[in-house]
Design goal:
heterodimer; A: 318 residues; alpha/beta; Glutaconate Coenzyme A-transferase; 9-stranded mixed sheet; 3-stranded antiparallel sheet; B: 255 residues; 10-stranded mixed sheet; 3-stranded mixed sheet; 23% strand
Chain lengths: 318, 255
């Protein structure tokens, strides 16, 4: 599971890490992900979820992907219901506490058709951080004594600290094949700037073997260089840059739009009684049938989009 | 309860808010914990520092704009600092958090919490959302839990320990490698429970107005002792209820 340092270095050395343009379409970016890959999803819960990228993976018919994320919301429902992935490694999985437990997640997991592998939230973060640091594990004082630990016991180790003798858990590094991350701004080379909550998106690009960035807008390299302190991960980690306005809809993108709450209500309602049929209808209407991502946004509706935008922009008012 | 001027959820939020003293640093989960911490800030604890799992240090939530989780921009209003999730959780490990404030689906006599599975984990009758940061908070800080008092939620032994309490009681928590923290208070709509200093068994520390120990026992799936200095709490004041209702006008969390 944890890859050797030789392999990690060789794979990094083999990549074109020069400063070059890498702007492409969602469809082209989906082509960089192979069936069976481990895909790490940026953002958290209902924030900066790379929904348009997931939409493109569904339309490209990818199969047997393993996903990991800090916390999974309705993106996880889409992954299971569409069949692009059967396993999600995360710390929490449901659309959101106000909608109760996700019926789609329950339906797929309880029937054994999909797997939700649970780690504590800090453990997810430390696993990505170990991957980002180029070390095989991180020590931690969390998860001990619990069944969360017992259930993944085969993947971790407990040691007595060589300095203090205290018990520590060693959490295995995660080096995903691909990280997909949605940001507010990025230049054509992949210098990505984030506003607001960073979640695990500073560690993810360094942990992953390649990164696909979707951005609300592509800005010039000159603009990036005017505020380089705002750049949260460097161009040489990035393989593809795609400009996708509202690329997190119906989830939020800090300072741009809040979650599309009415749309999320409708998704919960649609999947409540018959999760499989409801999710199927949703996928047909918003994923398979639309001509483009813009068409999908159009189907979500201008009213919901503007309400979400008003809320999103108000963050700087107080 | 004869007093019908408030819902059980409102009583829970008010009692929970009173447990937070001014000046503390509190790691708050979404739902009642977030609501109670915000209520405390607005009433008796203006210097209460709230941490949210999404990577937020010291925010003030805006009334009527309760966040749907601790990971959206609504959590960041007037914050002192935004940082990565991993780093805000590491503050627990480093020892900067006075109180971790959790909700609970199911709890047992040693304060262990299950929020992962109902039934056999390999073939669950219900897959719950899981730990999130709950396990980290419970592993690394002193914990207050706010939850509804129902027999099916207060069980002799949880089927699955998502967030560790005192495990098997006695010093078993420390033996497992968890050197800090542990459950401190369990606040429900009926009573406030604590833990015996040696056995680590849950016991009643206070009863809410009009509630008897027998009534609490009736709604609990294991035997509860009553602490020698158990007392009765004060009924929620009009001011507490007014501020609470103003925070949650859509009654998302207060029923």
């Amino acid at each position: 599971m944890v890859i050797s340092y030789d392999q990690l270095r060789a794979e990094t050395a083999a990549r074109d890490r020069s400063l070059h343009e890498k702007v492409m379409t969602l469809e082209e970016a989906a082509g960089l992900i192979k069936d069976g890959d481990h895909v790490a999803i940026g953002g958290c819960m209902m924030s900066r979820t790379p929904m348009a990228m997931i939409w493109a993976l569904v339309r490209a018919g990818r199969r047997d992907l393993t996903f990991s994320r800090s916390i999974v919301s309705s993106d996880g429902d889409i992954i299971f219901a569409s069949g692009i992935g059967k396993k999600i490694i995360t710390s929490w999985f449901s659309q959101g506490i106000v909608w109760g437990i996700s019926k789609v997640m329950r339906h797929w997991v309880e029937s054994g058709r999909a797997e939700f592998e649970e780690w504590s939230h800090m453990s997810m973060g430390l696993r990505y951080r170990a991957g980002a640091m180029g070390v095989p594990f991180m020590p931690s004082r969390s998860m001990m004594g619990s069944d969360v630990r017992r259930r993944v016991d085969g993947q971790l180790k407990e040691i007595d600290c060589p300095f203090t003798g205290e018990k520590l858990l060693l959490l295995p590094a995660l080096n995903p094949d691909v990280a997909i991350i949605h940001v507010q701004r990025c230049d054509p080379y992949g210098n990505a700037q984030l506003d607001g909550l960073q979640f695990m998106d500073v560690d993810l690009p360094l942990a992953a073997k390649k990164v696909i960035v979707t951005a609300e807008r592509i800005v010039s390299n000159d603009q990036i260089r005017r505020a380089p302190d705002q750049t949260k991960f460097p161009f040489f980690t990035v393989e593809a840059v795609v400009e996708v306005p509202y690329g997190s809809a119906p989830h939020e993108c800090y300072g741009h739009y809040e979650p599309f709450f009415k749309h999320m209500d409708q998704f919960a309602e649609l999947t409540r009684k018959d999760p499989e049929k409801g999710a199927g209808e949703y996928l047909e209407r918003f994923y398979h049938d639309p001509k483009s991502w813009t068409d999908t946004l159009g189907r979500m509706g201008l009213g919901d989009l503007l309400t979400a935008t008003r809320g999103g922009r108000s963050i700087y008012d107080v | 309860m004869s007093d019908r001027t408030h819902t059980a959820s409102e009583l829970l939020a008010v009692m929970a808010s009173r447990s937070l003293d001014d000046g503390l640093t509190v790691f708050a989960g979404v739902g009642t914990p977030l609501l109670a911490a915000t209520l405390a800030q607005r009433l008796h604890a203006p210097g209460l520092t709230i941490l949210f799992e999404g990577g937020v240090i010291g925010p003030f939530i805006v009334p009527g704009e309760l966040p749907p989780s601790t990971n959206e921009q609504r959590c960041t209003r007037q914050a002192n600092m935004l940082c990565p999730i991993t780093d805000v959780l590491l503050l627990l490990q480093r020892g900067y958090v006075d109180v971790g404030f959790l909700g609970g689906a199911q709890i047992d006599r040693y304060g262990n919490i299950n929020s992962s599975f109902i039934g056999d984990p390999d073939h669950p009758s219900c897959r719950l959302p899981g730990t999130g940061g709950g396990n980290d908070i419970a592993s690394l800080s002193r914990v207050i839990v706010a939850m509804k008092h129902e027999k099916r939620r207060f069980v002799e032994r949880v089927e699955y320990i998502t967030s560790p309490g005192y495990l098997e009681g006695g010093d078993s928590r420390r033996q497992s490698g968890l050197l800090a923290g542990g459950p401190y208070r369990i606040i429900t709509d009926l009573a406030i429970m604590g833990f015996h200093p040696e056995t680590k068994r849950m016991r009643i520390e206070a009863l809410h107005p009009g509630v008897t120990a027998a009534q609490v026992q009736e709604n609990t799936g294991f035997e509860l002792e009553v602490s020698e200095d158990a007392h009765t709490t004060d009924t929620p004041t009009e001011k507490e209820l007014a501020v609470l209702r103003n925070l949650d006008p859509d009654r998302l969390y207060i029923g």
